Amino acid sequence: MSHHPDPRARLTPAMRGVIDRIARAGHPPFHALTPEQARQAYAAGAGVLEVSPPAMARTQDLRIRTRDGAELPARLYLPIEADGLPVLLYFHGGGFTIGSIATHEPLCRTLAHLAGCAVLSVDYRLAPERKFPGAVHDAWDSLAWLRAEASALGLDAARIAVGGDSAGGTLAIATALQARDAGWPLALQLLFYPGCAGHQDTPSHRTYAHGFILDEPSISYFFGHYLRSPADRDDWRFAPLDGRDEQGELKDLDGAAPVWMGLAECDPLVDEGVAFGDRLRLAGVPVDLEIYAGVVHNFVQFGRAIPEARTAHQHAAKALKNAFGGDD
Known about the structure:
- This protein is an alpha/beta fold and 328 residues long.
- The chain is built from nine helices and eight strands.
- The chain has an eight-stranded mixed beta sheet with strand order 1-2-4-3-5-6-7-8, sandwiched between helices.
């Protein structure tokens, strides 16, 4: 996957052009900013290369009550007015430190439109104000809330999927494994380039450490804000590939919800995503894994410039339709 004398040569011409334009803009990297500045910078750039977000029949702003009494903002996207729609519970990416409902609205609208399902996007609380495992708790509490409120919202509580990109993918995996443990069936885990490993030591982390959107200094910056101590790197809720449970054992994956996973070839996280897919298959979990050639982390939010993003949207939507019992 990740051995090449010139890894930049693997990029598609369009992807190379996007990276070069970002470099010419000269914005400071996230790791040179405070978390609040990084959030503002990410919000300012989000959507610039997105596809035009499809219109929805209705959107609804909601508040999700958590175990500690907080209320998380959430937004429900309904592509059609119909009772009993299946729903994707979506957690945005951003290294547990940046990102929001707003930064991922075009993606969530696109998935709702293409899959014909509702999407509930959650503003879980961010680091460093809320350290690990705070985001894991918020994600799990969001699923519990959705199961309880689905009928009142006109949704089908028996057809819920969880999903996310990058750090949001990590949260989706942790939520799905907790749902398995609780006996709560899920239709699908929809994962765009999730973080899966506790230590950034794979070949792809070395090959794509600099110059491919998500760089090593930013990964260290995000995890430095999120994790309480190095020991958290070995917790399965942060590292579902190689993290341990309370008994010191690898978290078992048997019986987890089926997985659709879309990875970027030129991404530090690609090797751990492939390895996690292999572990899932060994555990008997159905896995549909796509690797999009010549693109980088975050590519699914570059749909105006990167055709592979639009392809990934279609693939993800088809997986949702199939999981929810819809048409191919």
